[in-house]
Amino acid sequence: MAAARWMLRWVAAAAAAVAAALALDNGLARTPPMGWLHWERFLCATDCAAEPRRCVSEQLFVEMADRMVAEGWRDAGYEFICIDDCWMAPTRDKQGRLQADPKRFPGGIRKLADYVHSKGLKLGIYSDVGSKTCAGFPGSYNHYDLDAQTFASWGVDLLKFDGCNSESLELLAEGYRRMSVALNRTGRSIVYSCEWPFYLRPVQQPNYTEIKQYCNHWRNFYDVYDSWSSIKSILDWTALHQDTIVKIAGPGGWNDPDMLVIGNFGLSWDQSVTQMAMWAIMAAPLFMSNDLRHISPEAKWLLQNKEVIAINQDPLGKQGYQLSKDKNFQLWERPLSDRAYAVAVLNQQEIGGPQKFTFSLTFLGNGLACNPACSIRQVLPASRDCGVYSWISSLSVEVNPTGTVLLKVLPL
Fold first, then answer.
1. Which residues form the Alpha galactosidase A C-terminal domain (predicted)?
2. At the N or C end, where does the chain have fewer CB atoms within 10 A?
């Protein structure tokens, strides 16, 4: 019996060693990555003659990189300039390598990466686990090692790996694993952004423990749109599944609710505040998809808000969660470093005017956030000190329809 137990322990230890060897241990994304991604705003615009300002081209990314530096985005923490789908030529080259469209990217990706790096920024790129990308360009199926080597040779710093056109869930999973291993083998630090669980969910429950072994962040839900209904659906889905997804997030691996669409056309000011506040609560990667050449001062202030970014980037790395839902109000909290908490009060009502929401501070942090006392600061929609409160106090906040009040609670 003792020998059998020893053998079982040995087998378990060997299995753990194999899992550790395969686990993603690239030292990256210790806090949620931040940057700019072209997809939601610019989609698959490829006619540079007809639409030179919208076209997915070398010029677009150079101009965005210039704005990232000149307008303070890099200094605020947004470090990645990310190319999404539609950058490729329709076919691979004679050596079987992916290649950029020669008309839209005349210098190739290596030249663009060098330019982005010269600005103190990092370059992200896109490919797909299947035979073709979602837009029909060449995918990485059967080319994982070659494509990883190609991206590394170009100086790429992040790969967004989509899940279209895979023939089976087994091939999908194998492809995500193989690309992760291939990226690590290159010796270059490349953040790995996956859509693996999103493509699994219609058929089976994702194994998030495995996904985190291979990916730095991962999409769970549909693409974000430039609309309040899209933001609301993402938040509703996250709250519904929080028991599954919140616990797996942390340094090196994050749930990704998709891009920030603040600064575009579809969100009101209060809805923009809600997206920024809730993405901070959810410890979400912050990838803007907007036109930094044409963005309002208000949107810029919100996206560059240091207090909100500090909450998002908190080194403790715990994702927030919904504490309660009361008619139209939702109360969320996120544990932060040094026993602090971020708290969000979201008003989902879409009619009428501002409404007050009152809650007991004993709700927060399992009763510990304000025990015996705390100071509370409002971060959004405007920054102000709310004062000092005792453990048994209640707090009232006034929240606009579809808006959010974001608070920071500091123990005394």
1. 317-403
2. N
